[in-house]
Design goal:
Elements (H helix, E strand, L loop, with lengths): L11 E4 L2 E4 L6 H7 L6 E2 L6 E2 L12 E4 L2 E5 L10 E3 L1 E2 L15
Parallel strand pairs: 1-7, 3-8
Antiparallel strand pairs: 1-2, 3-4, 5-6, 5-7
The chain binds FE2/S2 (inorganic) cluster.
């Protein structure tokens, strides 16, 4: 696999503190895969790793936290527009998380 060594300075974001370089117009998911990072989320119930699946914004397997906002699809978010990516566990604990009726 070819590494994106030719990209210019400043084209990059951090992933859990690690600097990731990307190509102009590349998605976050594509940049992570190019750096051999294949999983950046764990499932809600079993904690299983997830990354790209459909790659076109349909399956929501690739959810990640972008600049502090959880539940963003890495396969459609442009890397040019973000500074910090962090892994996400389960629902991401944001306002979009479903309430458990048992809690009422
Ligand atoms: S990989 Fe399916 S929505 Fe991103």
């Amino acid at each position: 696999m070819t590494r994106p060594d030719h990209v210019g300075p400043g084209l990059g974001f951090t992933f859990d503190g690690r600097r990731i370089h990307h190509r102009p117009g590349q998605t976050v998911g594509a940049a992570l895969v190019e750096h051999d990072i294949l999983a950046w989320r764990t499932t809600r119930h079993d904690g299983r790793p997830r990354g790209l699946f459909c790659g076109i914004g349909v399956c929501f397997d690739c959810l990640v936290t972008v600049d502090g906002i959880p539940n963003q699809r890495a396969c459609v978010v442009l890397a040019d527009e973000v500074e910090e990516i962090t892994t996400q566990s389960g629902s991401g604990h944001d306002r979009l998380a479903l309430r458990d009726p048992a809690d009422d």
